[in-house]
Amino acid sequence: MSNGKLLVISNRLPITVEKVGDSYKVNASSGGLVTALDSVLRKHGGIWMGWAGAETNEELANVIELASREHPYRLEAVPLTEQDVANFYQGFSNEIVWPLFHDLQSRCNFNPEYWSSYRTVNERFANRAAQFAKPGDLIWIHDYHFTLVAKYLRDRHLTNPIGFFQHIPFPPPDIFEKLPWRKQILEGMLSHDIVGFQTERDRRNFVACVRALLPEARVAEEATTYAGRTSRLSVFPISIDFHEFAHLAAQPQTERLTATIREEQAGRQIVLGVDRLDYTKGIIERLLAYRHLLNHHPEIHRRITLVQVVVPSRADIPKYREMKEEVERLISEINGKFSDAGWIPIVYLYRSLPREELVAHYRAADIALVTPLKDGMNLVAKEYCAAQVDHNGVLILSEFAGAACELNCGALMVNPNDQEAVADALLTAVRMPIGDRKQRMQGLRNALRDNDVYDWAEMFLEAGQETHPGKRRLFGAEPGDFFRTAAGVM
User: Fold this and answer.
1) What is the pTM for the complete model shown?
2) What is residue 467's predicted lDDT score, i.e. its pLDDT?
3) Which residues are tagged catalytic?
4) From 17, 77, 107, 219, which residue has the greatest number of CB atoms within 10 Å?
5) Do 166 and 312 have their domain in common?
6) Structural domain harbouring 310
């Protein structure tokens, strides 16, 4: 990397640390992002900086230091106090930015103490990054938790290339302008050399916000100059490790689990929903649409079963506890009204599924119902398609998910707020001939195979280096080849 290293900054480290009794247990994190960034850091060396998930003390610091020795790159835990977690993470990040950027401003709590904590934590991460960044290092900052880190680094006169990737949607001006600290957030994001978004819509919204709120900026669709710095604005749709999911779906143990799931619903089509507990995922709206289907199409009774997996999340936030109660109340109502001997309309799983069990559910499902009210990308839709090695599944996808830009070639697109439309899409999917199913799913899988998470990571980092001319290319000529080789895919 032109004698430099990669410094990744994200909210969480690629390991999770949990307290078990009087000791700590270290678990490896999973997911496509971790896989891709782990690969490049293993090859070139560098530092991954983030929160360990618990208040840092000397004992925990020693645990992380030992875990870091098992990696060919450094793990650097930045401490967060209980008050930081309450105000920076649960407060500003999840009670302001998260709902606002998902067009749900009525859920925002614009507490000024949250903003103060957000600035403090961002500056703390910047101070730590400045300790480790050397000339030529490439700094890659991830997501809405850290929009100000680059600004603090520039204040310290760091000239390193710094990239930022926005994993969640970016709102239009009429929503974003409700944020009291809107100008500071835009200035922070424009302190990067390159800012990446999931979709063209997100980039357009960002550009519109800059035009509306920073009139002194020189704005173009692909680059904006502000305060003497030009930031490149690009679209990089994040993806998954397609080959990993496809390979796991075809393994004998996965096939056995798949067969067991299908036997439990013999003679019925399985409709699958997999969502983290969050109001943006449209779980309640989905249940209402399913109830509408059962109300108006009694001929479909006993022919389908909705398996709804809800992954626990943010259980210490009251609004999330209230949502869980509402989801369970609605499921109980639907099952109570429509259940028949030998048939329960909804199978509800409130837990996180191990990877093998999750992939088995993906493969067993005849229909995937992915209907977020708004989503930066939604990788569940992509994981489902990758696991459909039999090409028999039908994807029903919200038009408000970032994945809709890539998967509208074969998915049944719906407005998640339209109960009748979602119910009609379910009916269409249930009745769809096998030939149509296979053709649609083949197209979806081809699209994902040609643009996986390794391509995504390489394209971003290559673009980041191009903002600093004269540096050697980090990778080879073919997108994704380095990452796939490093990960053992090729």
Assistant:
1) 0.91
2) 62
3) 167, 375
4) 77
5) no
6) 242-449
